[in-house]
Amino acid sequence: MGILSSRISRISPSATLKMTALAAELKRLNKPVYNLSVGEPDFSTPKNIQEAGKQAILNNHTRYTPGSGTHELKEAIIHKIKRDNNLSYNINNIIVSCGAKHSLYNACQALFEQGDEIIIFQPYWVSFPDFVSVTGATPVYVKTDKTKQFEPDFDDLKNKINLKTKGIIINSPSNPTGGVWSKSAILQTLDLCQQYNLWVFSDECYEQFVYNTSYDSLATLTENNERILTFQSCSKTYAMTGWRIGYTIGDPTVVAGMSKLQGQSTSCPNSIAQQAAIEALTGPQDSVVTMRNTFKSRRNLILKKLSEIDNIICETPNGAFYVFPDFSYYLGSFTPEKIKIESAEDLCMYILDSTGVVTVAGESFGAPGYIRLSYATSDDIIIKATELIKDTLSKLTF
Ligand code: PLP
């Protein structure tokens, strides 16, 4: 028997953070590195938000705050969700956490336990299965349609929901696919959730990065939204990943449960970051528009460059800052050193070793054969990295 609890043995290290560490190591060794593995905007936090952070320190906002976040930040969240999402909620519907990852973790802890089944759509963000399994509940995977923005396969969804199903995690726009579900797909899903009285987790971290359509927060699409928990974050929207501010909006009892857990674990989110988040949510929003436009043009660039590579299939994702091409044609091929490529993981490592291009293999997202490429990087890196991938793939033989 190992020394760690069974709880810890049920989870695995984050695959995306592993690739980030590999990229950092290459950089440290002064090797060329073209990083398409990043899960964060490459922009600086906007100046007005930086200033608010500095002022927060000077004005002594450097002490513990209420465990679930300051009243002022919750007011700012109420203002933001009304302005951007047309959602109307009260203070007791809101909890601020140390990033949406923390929010989602806490919500799973507050609601799920052994015996529960939680629906997760495949491909999924790497952390969803672990959030669920650490509670003792079981993740249940549902297939999606890659030709339709990775919307649910509704036959599979209906087959997988049963009386043990307690919750469902929706992430549109999605990490890793960039897929944005249509209103009709969301409504069909919500309808099923209502029939079975499921808790709906709507991870809306990428709500501001939608390119071809407008975005509707899930809770605005149905009158019966009491069981929808909405998760948003300052991380991606305001290029604030290191500040660690995310928030949950929904049922006051769940919010109170999450607050109790948070109070006994992290005490409160960072006081300085909370002040800066008020400025992010209520100050000028033009930096968000600039980022959205830039990401859209980079998405078009990376799609064009990928279309020049033989035998990969890449759908056009409508959101986030990822593309998720299918590289399965190359599985079973051999490197110039005669090493067999058995998996997307092998292919990622071959690409990394031969070119310095860092990507993330689909296996960690429940999608063997796929590779996630992030375009949260410069046009130059996108061009160079995709050309290197094309060149190195052409050296594989069958
Ligand atoms: N949800 C999704 C789908 C993500 O991709 C991420 C970050 O990569 C998060 C949540 C967590 O973001 P944060 O904890 O920085 O708010």
Straight-line N-to-C gap:
44 Å
Q: Give the uncertain stretches in residue-range form.
A: none
Helix content: 40-55%
General form: globular
| β-strand number | 14
Radius of gyration: 21 Å
> How many strands, what sense, and barrel or not for the largest sheet?
7 strands, mixed
What small molecules are bound in this structure? pyridoxal-5'-phosphate
Give the SSE layout:
Blueprint: H1 6-9, H2 15-28, E1 34-35, H3 47-58, H4 71-85, E2 94-97, H5 100-111, E3 117-121, H6 127-133, E4 138-142, E5 144-145, E6 151-152, H7 154-160, E7 165-170, H8 183-195, E8 199-203, E9 228-233, H9 234-237, E10 246-249, H10 252-263, H11 271-282, H12 286-307, E11 322-323, H13 344-355, E12 357-358, E13 360-361, E14 371-374, H14 379-393
Parallel strand pairs: 1-12, 3-4, 3-7, 7-8, 8-9
Antiparallel strand pairs: 2-10, 5-6, 9-10, 11-14, 13-14
The protein binds pyridoxal-5'-phosphate (PLP).
Pyridoxal-5'-phosphate binds near residues 39, 100, 101, 233 and 241.
Give the gist of this structure.
The protein has 398 residues and is α/β, with parallel strands linked by helices.
Protein architecture, described:
- Strand 7, helix 8 (183-195) and strand 8 form a beta-alpha-beta unit.
- By secondary structure, this protein is of the alpha/beta class.
- The mean pLDDT is 96.
- It has helices spanning 6-9, 15-28, 47-58, 71-85, 100-111, 127-133, 154-160, 183-195, 234-237, 252-263, 271-282, 286-307, 344-355, 379-393, and strands at residues 34-35, 94-97, 117-121, 138-142, 144-145, 151-152, 165-170, 199-203, 228-233, 246-249, 322-323, 357-358, 360-361, 371-374.
- The chain contains 14 helices and 14 strands.
- It is globular.
- A seven-stranded mixed beta sheet has the order 2-10-9-8-7-3-4, sandwiched between helices. The chain has a three-stranded antiparallel beta sheet with strand order 11-14-13. Strands 1-12 form a two-stranded parallel sheet.
- Pyridoxal-5'-phosphate is lined by residues 39, 99-101, 125, 171, 175, 203, 205, 233, 235, 241, 246.
